Amino acid sequence: MMINVKCIMKNVILKGIIYFILLIICTSFLYSQVNFIRPRPTDTLLTGRITRIEWNNAQFNSVISLFYSNNEGSSWQLIADSLSTKFYNWQIPLLDTLKLKFRIVSDINDDPELLWEISNAHNSEVRTVSLSADGRFALSSGGDSLVKIWDISSKAVIDSIKLSNQYIYGAYQFHGIDSIIIAFDSSAILWDRINHTTLIFGKGYFQNIVKSCAVNPAMSLFEAGSYDGYLMLFSVITGDTIASFHSDDYSNIYTCSFSNDGTILLFSTYSGDIYAYDVINESLIRKFDSEDRSGSRLVWSSICSSDNKYMVTGCVDGLVRIYDMNTGIITDTLKGHTGQIRQVNYNNDERVILSGSLDGTMRQWYVQNSSEATIPINHGAQVLSCGYSSTSDTIISAGRDGSIKLWKNFKPHHYEDSIVSIVKYPLKVKIPDIYSKTGEFFRMQLLADELSDIPKPQEKFIDYKLTLEYPSRILDFRDSSVSASPMNNVDTAIILVNSKQLSDTLANFLALSLFGSEISGNLNILDFKVLNSNDYHIDKDDGSITLSSTCEGNTSRQIQFSKSALAMTVYPQPAEAELKIDLNILEKGRHILKIYDEKGNVINDILDKNFSAGLQHLSINTGFLEPGIYFLVLIAPSEFNLKYFVIVR
Questions:
Q1: 634: domain CATH number?
Q2: 21 in helix, strand or coil?
Q3: Cβ pair 357, 372 in contact under 8 A
Q4: Coil, strand or helix: which one is 30?
Q5: pLDDT tens digits for 353-381?
Q6: Among 230, 505, 543, 548, which one is least packed by beta carbons within 10 Å?
C-alpha cells in the first residue's frame, strides 16, 4: 500500500495553522472583553476640560473601574469605580506631566454552583465537615454519634466510627485524613484509622462536655475546650496534658482554634470574651472583652490571619467581626446574615472570608473592601459547618438537615485595557474688539484667556511668533519693524516675542489709528506658535477695529486712549507742598514710579504696584525736596513715561 507522505504533511500543517488561528482568536477574545474606544492615541486632551472616555464591555452586568496614571503606570489613581455604563465624562486635572495613561479594569465572578449533594449523610444534624488537603475525601461528624470519611468522587463512605450514644460535637483532621480528633462527651478521642485504635484524652479532667477541639497546624498538639470553662492542650506523641487554661469567669467554652503557625491559641466563651494565648510561653497575649456578657455576643468560630495581625470571628448576633490583634480594636464588621454565624474561614490567599449561618446561607467577603465577593450560597437549611478546599475552588457545607453539599466556588475573571494619551494646556489667544478715534495712539492688546487650566501660569515664560492680519488703511503700528503697504487693504505683521511671561496680557502693541476713508476692519490672528514648548494647544479668537469720531460702541475689553501711549499729568507747576499726579494706565501689570534729580540719581521710590487699566490719582509731599528740577519716571510693563516738575522755595 502506497502512503502519500506529502499529503499527510500538508494536512498536518493545515491543521496546525487552523489551531494556531483559533488560539489567536480565543486569546484575542479573552483580552478584548473590555477595550477603549476613545480617547484614541492620536487624540489630544486638554487640562481643565471635560473629556469623554468610552469603552466596549462584552461582559453583561459587569462593572468597570477607571484609573489614570501620570507616571507611565508606576502608580494609578482611581477616577471612578463600579461604573455600569460604557462611558465616563472626566475633567482632566492640572498635571505637571502631560502624558496620561488610562486603564479600565473589569473583575467579574462566575456564580457558585452545586456539584453534588448527599441528602442523608447522617441521621441527625451534621455538626462538622471538612475536606482533605488533596480534595479527595471529606470528614463529617453528626448528632447520630457517627464520624464518617467520604470519597468525594463516588460520594461513598469509605470509613466510619460509631461511638456510644453520648454526643459527638465535632471531628477534626489531625495533619491528614488518617488521624482524627473527636470532641466526644467530656473528653477528646484520637481515632487512628491506620492502626484501627482510639486514644482518649482528658477523661476525668473535664467536668462538662467538650464542645470544640482544634489541631495545631505546626506541632503534634491539639486543644480541647469544655463547658466547664477549661481548655487543655494535649500532645499526641506523648499523650500528656501540656497546659491548661481557663476563662476568668469559668464561662462555657464554645470554640477554640490555632493560628496558622501554631504559636497562638484562641478560645471564646458564652459571655463573648475571646482569649489569645502564646502556646510556647503559655502566657496570655490579649483578652478581647465582650461588650455584652448576656450571650448575645457569643462567638461560635474564630480564626487568625496567617501573619497573626488580625482575628476574624463569627457571632451569635449574625455579624462577622475583624479585630486588630495588636490593639484589640474591631477594624471591620461584615453585615448580611440574618442568623447566627457558626463558621468562618479564610480562603487560600486570605483575600476572602467565608461565613456560614443559621439563616441557611454562606457568604463570601472581600477582606480589602468588606464587599460581598459573590452571591450568597443557599444551603437550604441551617448551616452548622462549612469550609474551603485547599485551593479554595470548592466549598463543602453541612447543617441541620443532615445533608452534605459540595459547591464549585465562584471563579474570578480579570479583564483590563490601557491606552496612552497626550495632554496639552489650552491657551486661548485673542484680540479684543477695539473702538478708537482717528489719529490716536492706543494699545492693541494680545490677550491670553482661560489661564486657570494651566498650572501656575505666572511662572511660565514663552517665546512665541504671532502672525496678524490687520486693515492697513485704518491701522498702523508704531514699531518700525512692522510696516504697512498703502496699496493693500490688509497687511500682515509677523511679531516675535522672546521670554514673555505667561499672563493675562501677552503683549501690548503700540498702534496708531489712521485718517482714511474706511472706518472698520478685522484683526485676524492667522497663526500663533509657542516656540519654546510643545505643551500648549492654541485656540484663536479674532477681533476688530472701528474708528469713530465719538468713540462709541461696546468693547469686549476696556481700552483707555490718550495722545501719548502712556499718559501722566503732573501739577501744579512749580510744585507746591503737595504734588498731584494723574496716571492714565493703559496696560495691566506692574508699574513703578520714581523721582530722579537732574543728574539722573534716584531720589525716592514713589510706588511699585500692579494696576489694572484705568485712571489712578496720586499725591506726594514735596517737603523733603530741595529747590531744583526733578523728573518723575513711570515704568510700565512694556514702556515708560517721563515728566519733570520744579521745586521753588
A1: 2.60.40.1930
A2: helix
A3: no
A4: helix
A5: 999 999 999 999 999 989 999 999 999 99
A6: 548
